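Recap from last week: sequence in, structure out.
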Amino acid sequence: MPALPSGRDAPPEKELSGRNLLLGVSGGIAAYKTAPLVRRFKKAGADVQVLMTESARRFVSPLTLGTLSEREVLSAIFPDGPGDPESEGGAWTKHVSLGLWADLFVVAPATAQTLAKLAGGFSDSMLMATALSAQCPLLVCPSMDRDMYAHPAVERNLRTLSGDGHTVMPAARGELASGLTGPGRMPEPSAIFDRVAAMLSDREEEKGKREGPRTAGGTEPAQAKPPPYPLADRRVLVTAGPTREPIDPVRHLSNPSTGTMGFALAEAAAQRGAAVTLVAGPTALATPPGVERVDVETADEMHAAATEHAAGADLVLMAAAVADYTPAAPSDAKLKKDRQNGDALVLRLHRTPDILAALGEKKPGGQRLLGFALETDDGPTHARRKLREKNLDWIVLNSPTREGSGFGTGANEVTLIGADGREEAFDRMPKRALADALLDRVAASTEAADAHRGT
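Predicted structure tokens:
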């Protein structure tokens, strides 16, 4: 394999130290976000090679990305000739060596055009040729306008890529360059970084399992990593995100939940073959592929939707951050500043439905119910009481006071507590990786219980 230019050595303690990343950038407005993404990869110790389509050069300068990555940015599969910076070193053959060199290939943003070419196996640029040659996992991060993202052709291409074994990171919701609002935004660089770190961690673990533990006499026989526990033929209900309790038409009570953990659980369950219904409070996240989504606003609406869909579910994962109180008498008109009352505004609140307790009380035989406990003090005691009083099978204890965990982060650090008394602590990890870890434990326990009932 031809030698490749290398970046500066990274300290071994860095999260992505020694990892080789390909970053494919295609021509969308979100291409400007790739600069902070490259910077973050580099700060984490990774070596990064950027591949750009010609259209991408209109949105972000190759000089910028080349400077940040410390490598010459590649675009054309065939160099123009002498004087072209890509003509040096046999650039037109680099797709082969890069495909062998990389640990992971990220395409962000992946426009509708690029998705179509990836799904169709086109090879008209260095990015596309390298994607066909790559011997590593491919992570695709779509970015386009709302109606393009919803077009059947785009959905078909995304399904094709998923079916080919590639990972598709759903587009985020929010304001788009066209002025429309909805799904289509490229995931934020922090979310992409977390997914990359999780995928590389999983790949390293799989490699270690294949190679087996070292002994004085050499290497043990290779052991394959066991596949994730499947959920085929299972019906799964997930709740996610906050609720909004109206004070008046323009104000509400809520919390900082973004829904990331619940959406990660829904995506992980769907990838394991489950029929997943996701009841989501207000959030900017895109619906994971293959998931049926029900949008709600208030605690009452979430209570009604969760009750309806839990009736036929085999597994219920209650990750939503439901408001405990709601204004007793929300105003039909915007509340004005009242000079007679000075600076004080008094709201009378009443309790919202305890959805988790209601589902636990009516839990049918064979159904498994998991809840979350967000605690700031004496967490284990409160979590165990909640587990017992609400008739749960498991509860996930986490804290918003731990750095890098809780609301609004891409990672979490939790303890899983079972009704059988077992407890397992999970170190801080990306929420998508945590979703897989939790489902492995839950599905394994469910499988064992089903087998016991059948004997």
